[in-house]
Amino acid sequence: MTEKSELEIEQLELEMTSKARFVDSASTSSSVEVDTAVPSYISVQNGPITPVPVKNFSGTGSSVASYKYRVYPWRWLMLVAVCLLNVSNGMMWLSFSPVPALTAVYYGISVSDVDMFSIIFFIVSLVVGFVAIILLDKVGLKVPLYIGAAMNLIGSGLRLLSSINFLICSPVPKAAFYVALLGQALTAVAQPFSLYAPTTLAAVWFGPKERALCTNFASVSNPIGLAIALVATPYIVTTVDQIPTMLWIYTIPAGVTFLLTLVAFWWKEPPIPPASSGGRDHIPPFFKGLLQVLKNWSFWVLLIFWGGAAGMFNALVTLLPQILCPYGYSDRDSGLWGALMIFFGLGGATVAGIIIDYTKMYKDVSIVSIGCAIISLVWFMEVSTFANQHVLVASSLCAFGFFALAQIPVCMELGVEITYPVAESISSGLLWSAAQVLGIAIVFISQVLTKAMSPEQIHINQCGNDIDFNSSTTLTSCHQSTHNASMPDIVGPSLILTELGPAMIFIPTFTTILFVFYVVFFRPKYKRIAAERIASFEASVYVGNRQTK
Questions:
Q1: Which of 257, 281, 305 is the last residue of a domain?
Q2: How far apart are CA 488 and CA 494, in angstroms?
Q3: DSSP per residue over 53-111, as a string?
Q4: What is the mean pLDDT of residues 415-434?
Q5: 250 in the same domain as 225
Q6: 106 CB-contact burial (10 Å; exposed 0-12 / middle 13-18 / buried 19+)
Q7: What 8-state DSSP symbol labels residue 40?
Q8: Which residues pair with 53 in a beta bridge?
Q9: Which of 282, 341, 364, 420 places its Cα 20 to 30 Å from the Cα of 111?
Q10: Has residue 16 got a pLDDT over 50?
Q11: At CA 295, angle to CA 289 and CA 298, rounded to 5?
């Protein structure tokens, strides 16, 4: 079938009022009916792609267009592998953040140095992100995910190596810390390879009505890893000498995931694509595709909206202890509630993924979910300023997580739809990079807006008060006999002496501005849907012509 001009494609859009059926070549017991009537808001810029007709057409005389599109059961193992890799990597990211005081004691560093374990994740993943986008576009899923799984395991091993006595008791200041930081940097290298892969996995291996669900599970699995670290670390590490135990525990999933990834992604791509858009022949070269994306106004609106919304969520997770501690809530409270927020978010993302898979109402679902998220955020900011409101604070965070994380499958799939036929890794990579950049910016602005705690807030502050830094159960014999024994400038009971009152006004205000901007300026054209419907119409005409001969 020859490539059509734009005028011919416009004519096809007007003519497509019939229905075509896709019949899985592997099964004759069921078919999926697709309405090929194209709404007025859909347009196609790059023309349709050529479908693959089934060679064993039955010739029964029915007006059924049989396509050789197929999905493989192996795709579910691939999804599990990507999910576990993202979970493991998320656990690496926040391993030390829930216990900054004990981490500072263990490595002989300041609490501000502990923040480097998180900051280096942002920096390294941003730098490596561009390489990940190129590799996913050029060589597909297999090699990038092998690299990601390997870096995640090697980095985890280096972090564990930092706990050996030779480094901990080294006369070289902070020797163990620098080894652990190097390991953290290597695990950060893995993040863009696993985080940018879900949309490509969904497009290459999953059917049209499974894509959003695949993107949802694979993308939300990274926040699940964060939630596990937020909950597990404070309970695993109650004394300094339990830091190595935590490192051991977090290395095990990295090893299992590495082996699973090697097996799951043995094949680069399916022999037969799952849909007309699942083939790779229609994808333009990387830099040409990148230029197309950068010229796409709708994508810029989505990039700003998603980057700000996701960055705000990341900032809230990071700042949650500082928001809650001045009002009498403990760091364990904030860790548990942060985890609940993420787990409820998984439910919201799953519901949103199912809805958009079957309705394709991307923008409508996005507007409803972010609107409800803003209402929940304002609710949380209000009730969190009152002491002893554990149920209300937890409920508001759960509601916020449910609606906020629903944006993940919606925005990731929207990015693919409005930039089609550009490689999925380009849109998803740019969206996640924007979230990281704006997340850092929001955290920085929030820190600038901090103010000193009032005497009443200092009195009820629960963070850092449960650690006795002179206790023999806190300092190991090695720490007591080396340079690490000097603790006064490292940590203390007054670990958190500031509160984020002004930032609690800034965060929901900024999110509301993003919401209005998105509603007013986002005018999407669902190019992938249009291309698939055109392909289905062409196939029905193709088979019909064969029947009349």
A1: 281
A2: 11
A3: B-TT----S-----B-----THHHHHHHHHHHHHHHHHHHHTSSTT-HHHHHHHHT--H
A4: 85
A5: yes
A6: buried
A7: T
A8: 67
A9: 341
A10: no
A11: 105
Number of domains, the chain = 2
Say if residue 341 is in the same domain as residue 234.
no
Residue 276 token pair = 């007309």
35 phi, psi to nearest 5 deg: -75, 120
- Residue 497 binned pLDDT confidence (cut-offs 50, 70, 90): low
Contact between 435 and 310 under an 8 Å Cβ cutoff? The reply is: yes
pLDDT grade, residue 549 (50/70/90)?
A: low
Residue 362 and residue 342 in one domain = yes
Read off φ and ψ for residue 37, nearest 5 degrees: -70, 125
What confidence category does residue 548 fall into, taking pLDDT thresholds of 50, 70 and 90?
low
Residue type, 210: E
DSSP conformation letters of 184-204: HHHHHHHHHHHHS-HHHHHHH
Of 281, 298, 314, which one is at a domain's C-terminal end? Answer: 281
Q: For position 303, what pLDDT does the model report?
A: 93
Residue 426 has pLDDT above 80, yes or no: yes
- CATH number of 367's domain: 1.20.1250.20
Residues 415 and 500 in one domain: yes
Three-state DSSP class for residue 528: helix
The residues that bridge with 530 in the sheet, in sequence order, are none
Report residue 181's pLDDT band, with 50, 70 and 90 as the boundaries.
very high
Buried b (16+ CB within 10 A) or exposed e, 453-481: beeebeeebbbbeebebeeeebbbebbee
Token couple for 282: 């229609």
What is Dmax (Cα atoms) for the chain?
92
CA angle, corner 461, sides to 332 and 397, nearest 5?
45
For residues 10-22, give the mean pLDDT: 39
Q: Is the dihedral of CA 171, 106, 484, 114 positive or negative?
A: positive
The two three-digit tokens of residue 29, written as one number: 């017991």
Q: Do 239 and 315 fall within a single domain?
A: no
Same domain for 274 and 332, yes or no, is: no
Which pLDDT tens digit goes with each residue over 103-161?
888 888 876 678 788 878 888 988 898 888 888 888 888 899 999 999 999 999 999 99
For the chain, give the number of residues: 549
Q: Quick one: the chain helix, strand, coil %, rounded to 5? A: 65, 5, 30
Question: Whose structure tokens read 């620098």?
Answer: 178
- The Cα–Cα gap between 436 and 318 comes to 12
